[in-house]
Write a structure and sequence with these properties.
- The structure is a single chain.
- This protein has a seven-stranded mixed sheet with strand order 7-6-5-8-9-15-12, with helices on both faces.
- By secondary structure, it is α/β, with parallel strands linked by helices.
- It has a single domain, classed as Rossmann fold (3-Layer(aba) Sandwich).
- 29% of the residues lie in helices and 24% in strands.
Amino acid sequence: MQDYFEFLPDADHEQILVLRKAYLKKLESDKKGVVAHRLPFESVCHLRASLLDFEGEVVTIGQREDLSRQEFDLVDKVMRGFIPWRKGPFKVFGIDIDAEWRSWRKWDRVLPFLPDLQDKVVADIGASNGYYMFRMVPQQPKAVIGFEPYLQHYFTFCTLNSFAGLTNLHMELLGVEHLSLFANSFDVVFLMGILYHRISPLESLKEVKKSMKKGGTLIVESQAIPGEEPVALFPERRYAKAPGTYFVPTAACLKNWMLRAGFVDVEIFCSHPMSSKEQRRTEWMTFESYDDFVNPNNPSLTVEGYPAPLRVFLRGIAG
């Protein structure tokens, strides 16, 4: 594994290595849930792409001509084994992967509000399969570290980046709760689709701030409820069928959380209602999606009767 520690002098290298050693040992186990993802990765990780294109909506890695028929069939099988694909789209050696989220829409909303990423150290918290990490590559960041605690997403990224061969992209099988080990490390942090899954969102934001260099930029994207008041919904059991959803704020509430966590110059730069145009079931994500989460007779409500979600975007500076 290529490392990035030289760019993070204040991080707790020793403890990060302890955690990494522990999860790498776990990844070597013969447990069915690990082997199901590791063996497909190992079967194709020797293949290399002749073409990379991260400028457009589709993250493109390789061409059909790079592979023999047998290799192509194997890659297709491996890619389908990583279903469900949540973020995308991707085109991998000519295989079109239509993910649940049309993630380019979110990236296009964020892009005008990003600082220059050239030679910056960036964290993507909850990186999933790395779609946004690949989209950052054209700006030539020094290092992008993805935090992704789920094995399926971790191995999906590892497989894609083994094809791409990008040495400035790194993935750790860690979560937002490990950011305390990365003191004063990041110039830019992406925290997208995470906060409403945290029992204490304010504490999470404080940990994020500690991981950032003074003057660094935080991009937050979150599920939210409509309204001008700084309040948050706390669902009884589930919100839009998700049991792991806790505080769903208004944009004003989320702004106040960021201010109380120590960020300055906080601005709400986008707010829009969710719809199935952006999140939907596909051949590559065959489970329930947005249309299943809202009341079919009144799409302004979730199936539980709560206000249907907005997506809000905020930017703040680490003070």
